[in-house]
Amino acid sequence: MQIKFTMLIVGLLSLLGFSYYKLHKPDQGSDKVKVTIEIKSKLGEGSFWDHHNQRLFWVDIEGKTVHIFDPATKKSKAFNTPSRVGTVVPKNRDEAVIALEDGIYLINTNNGDLSLLSDVEAESTGNRFNDGKCDPNGNLWVGSMHLKQSAPKGNLYKIDIKGTATKMLDSVTISNGIVWTSDNKTMYYIDTPTGKIQAFDFHAGNSTISNKRTAVYIDESLGFGDGMAIDSEDKLWVALWNGNAVARFDPLTGKLIEKINVPAHNVTSCTFGGKNFETLYITTSSLDMTEKENKEFPLAGSLFEVRPGIKGVAGNFFSQKK
């Protein structure tokens, strides 16, 4: 009887241990990920959760489209843009700031009308704008990238509510993910080809940065760091181009904590959404894939979601202080 009881306890402990392992192992299967919108977007990017109005913004850069999705009604609306659109961040219920090839614009989120805010880099025809997010003071930090992706000719700018553009970094090749910690003291930033997530001291008093250093090296075996989100524990969630996944890193140790597989070859951005920021929305691309990869990932270009068991935080709106 004692032997049977002991075996039962061992069996239960083993089962519990297996369950814990499944929940916390570094590499999670794509069966956790659900399709939010099945769509063949060319280059989905720039995801942002509007927590005031409970809706998701994202863009299709090469499809020249701004998308707004309401999870409650499962309805979307889309606005075409006259050129490639790199990112979108809400300003209020009726406006958002977007980055087009020839500058920074405000878009009316009811009818799609555009108004120019800044013509920075309008003459730099070899570049286009890519990812961008707002700092705790409501300034848009948005980066440009070299169209041929072969030289560090891009820049990272800070755009204020008046449209004043200040160059914060130069010699950038593909400007991508950018986030701030909960204490507003650190900014993390990705220039994709470097394979690094850089950390900077962020000075909230005047929205400047200093003390550049490397927080995370992303091994090429994982893919290339693209868009990025930050969670309630100040850990980094990085979309992996050519990596079929989103990875969670600890920026204080540089270690990979977790990886969630996504049924798309090129994963481009992610953001936490939902009423309690429990859902991670993930954008993907259908470009730059071989015939074999197209067959393996027929959902590439779609918008996905997953509940990773970690909560995110509210993003900063344009012109509104945190």
From TrEMBL:
SUPFAM superfamilies: Calcium-dependent phosphotriesterase. Keywords: Hydrolase. It is an enzyme of class 3 (hydrolase). The keyword Coiled coil does not apply. This is SMP-30/gluconolactonase/LRE family protein. Belongs to the SMP-30/CGR1 family. The lineage of its organism: Bacteria, Pseudomonadati, Bacteroidota, Flavobacteriia, Flavobacteriales. The keyword S-adenosyl-L-methionine does not apply. Transmembrane segments: none annotated. Its EC number is 3.1.1.99. It comes from the Bacteria. Pfam families: SGL (PF08450). One of its GO terms (molecular function) is hydrolase activity. Residues 43-285 form the SMP-30/Gluconolactonase/LRE-like region domain.
